Structure formats: C-alpha cells, structure tokens
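Weekend entry, working from home. Most of the wet-lab plans are on hold until the incubator is repaired, so I used the time to fold the two sequences that have been sitting in the queue since the last round of cloning. Logging both here for the record. First:
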Amino acid sequence: MATLAVVNRAGQDYTDRAYWAGTIKMSLSKLFILAVLHEGPMHGYEIARAVERTTKGCCSPTEGTIYPSLRDFAEGGYVTVAEAFVSGRRRRVYTLTDKGRLACEVAWEAWMEATRALQDTGKTMPRRGSRDGTEGCCP
C-alpha cells in the first residue's frame, strides 16, 4: 500500500517522522539545558555536549537552539550570565538560579506526566501491521 504524504498550507508533512522527532527534541532541549546546568556553570558549547552526553545522543542541540533558549532563560531570571576566559577564550558562562532550578523541576514533572500518558495510551493504541491484521494509526 502506498503511503500518502499529507502536506498542510505551510508545506509541513505530518507523516514525516523527522518532523515529530524534531519537534519533540526541540522542546526537550530546553528541559535538558536546565537539567545539565544543575551540574554547575557552563558555556554554550559545554552545555551542548553535556546535553548530548546526558541524552546519549537523542538530543544534540545546535547553536540555533541553545543560544535563543539561554537568552530567554537569562531574560527571565532562570540563569545568570558572566563573561569568563575558558582555555584562553572569552566565553559567556551560564549559571542556574534558584528560579531556574524550580523551572527545571516543574518542567521535569510536566514531561514525566506526558511520558506516562504516552506510555499508557500506547498500550491500547492500535498499531500498523498489528498481529490481528488490522491497520491502526500508529507505527
């Protein structure tokens, strides 16, 4: 059976797994940025590598994800920013504030709640090519 690509007005194909993976990873990147800053102050490149290491490569945030998030976190008082020399280079070093720690805890709880809902729903969701021969909506 041929797969039908469904494209909306903006040109987005919602049948593309990469779309969903990217959407999820972008949102998770914000959570993981806050989470790795629990380890201590870091500059942007360190944060990216720590997120990648922590998630075993599932989330590999780019500069285009990290720096706008860090800017938002700084403007909101979730991190502080200080200039420092690291390995002879001037870097912006980010430190989690108490407000940032609270945001991380709240975000973590929200993600875990969503994860449990996905797992519970996934137990009853029909699968494509399931054993009973019916076709469901999910792979």
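Second, folded right after the first finished:
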Amino acid sequence: MKMGKLEAPDTHYLSGAEGWMELGDLPSALAELELISEPFHNHYDVLQVRWHILNRMEDWEDCLRISRQMIEANPELPQGWINHGNGLFYLRRFQEAYDTLSPVVKRFPHDEAIPYNLACYKCQSGELGEAREWLERALKVGDSKRVKKMAATDPDLMPLWEQGVKIN
C-alpha cells in the first residue's frame, strides 16, 4: 500500500516524536505519533520511528508487528526486513532472525547492515565461522573503517573477539 508524502503538521509531529525519543521520553514520543493524521499512522516513516521507540522500550512483540507492516508497505526497502530480523534476534530467536534476513541479501547487495546483522545472529548462535564470513562481507559492502569501529564494541560480536578471531 503506497501512501502520499507526509506534510505539515504531521511532519512536525514525527520530528517531535524523534526528539522525545532522543531525550529518552518514550511515552511522550509515542503520544506525539498519535497526533499524526489517522491515514498516515501506517506511513513507512511513522512506522520506522514507532519501531525505534518500541525497540528502546524492549517491546519486541510490537516491534515484530510494526516491522511486518513495514515489509508489507515497502518490501523494496531494506529497513523493514532488518527491523524484523532484529526483533526476532532480541527475542533470542536467532535462527528465525537469520532465516528472515539471509534471503534478502541478494535484494539489497549494497546494504552493509544486512550482512552485519547476520554476523551478529550467527555469532550469538555460536556459529563463529559463519559470523566471521558475514562480518567480512559487511566490511566489503560498507565503509570498512566505520564497520570495524562498530564491530569492535558490539556486544553481539564479543564471542568472535573472545576466540581471537581477526577480521581483514
């Protein structure tokens, strides 16, 4: 379902929700989203912000519901798929997360977040060889310096570093 472009005042409410989220006031962020015109509650950008608020609230089931809506609304955009995989990951459903995200690698070959997240999923599943391969793919696809910096402090990848795995 394609939707029109968000316009004022809805764009202001969306910005307000992002601001409240950045300040850590998640109930106010959600309240701000409710001010958006009803037809735009399911707009992709609104769903994306709602997902991030719910993610911070650790409401994984609602994150899954929102990410499914994102995929249905715009299957050609990677973020809904990534969010859905991450929602499953946060529920510790590592194999489901992997099974959700791995098929879309081919659809979004230049998105570093997909192989990066797959590395995290495999790492937390104890499959360190595959985790390393996915991480190396993320380094090739994305900004390798930024990916390396992020990976070095990512707790989801710690099993790799504890095993002394080196990345190129």
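Plan for Monday: verify the second prediction. The longest helix spans residues 10-23.
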